[in-house]
Design brief:
The chain is an alpha+beta fold. The chain is about 35% helix and about 25% strand. Strands 3-8-4-5-6-7 form a 6-stranded antiparallel β-sheet. The termini are far apart. The relative contact order is 0.15. This is NlpC/P60 family protein. Keywords: Hydrolase, Protease, Signal, Thiol protease. Belongs to the peptidase C40 family. One of its GO terms (molecular function) is cysteine-type peptidase activity.
Length: about 170
């Protein structure tokens, strides 16, 4: 009986010490995962843009009621206090030009307008994923509203113009 009594006291003491250590560790912040708000700004931007999938296209649109391509990009970057004009060609004047091989999520990707023969930028999106030979971007398209597309699709490949970086 005395053995059981000592064992119980030892076990209770061990539980108390373990609980106290765990509470101290939790309160120190040493082992806490980062809250979702503290994600890297670029990851947060891409996540924010993704939350708007399937919102319809609206010419000149810049709200959740509907976006055109540059209105969507402007809306997203505005959340990070980066002001952009409401025109894809004017947005192309901002940021640092980046080679396709150096593209990263969060970069802007620019395309010619309706005609691949045109010299004028007429479309913009936000790159969401990059791998060798693979660039996925989110944008507001006339058909489908906010959606993902791939640069290697012939429609976009023929119209690709440039990539610009606004965030590090």
């Amino acid at each position: 009986m005395q053995f059981l009594s000592r064992s119980f006291v030892s076990f209770a003491l061990l539980l108390t010490v373990t609980s106290t250590c765990n509470l101290a560790l939790a309160n120190s912040g040493a082992a806490r995962p980062a809250p979702p708000d503290s994600l890297h700004a670029v990851q947060s931007l891409v996540s924010f843009a993704t939350k708007h999938l399937h919102i319809p296209y609206r010419s000149g649109g810049a709200s959740k009621k509907g976006f055109d391509c540059s209105g969507f990009v402007r809306y997203c970057f505005d959340k990070w206090n980066i002001s952009l004009p409401h025109s894809s060609s004017a947005q192309a004047e901002h940021g640092e030009t980046v080679k396709l091989d150096d593209a990263r999520p969060g970069d802007l990707i620019f395309f010619k307008g309706n005609s691949a023969a045109s010299e004028r930028i007429g479309h913009v999106g936000i790159i969401t994923e990059v791998a060798p030979g693979y660039v996925r971007f989110i944008h507001s398209a006339w058909k489908g509203g906010i959606r993902y597309d791939l640069l290697n699709a012939s429609y976009y490949q023929k119209r690709f113009v440039a990539i610009k970086r606004l965030m590090d």
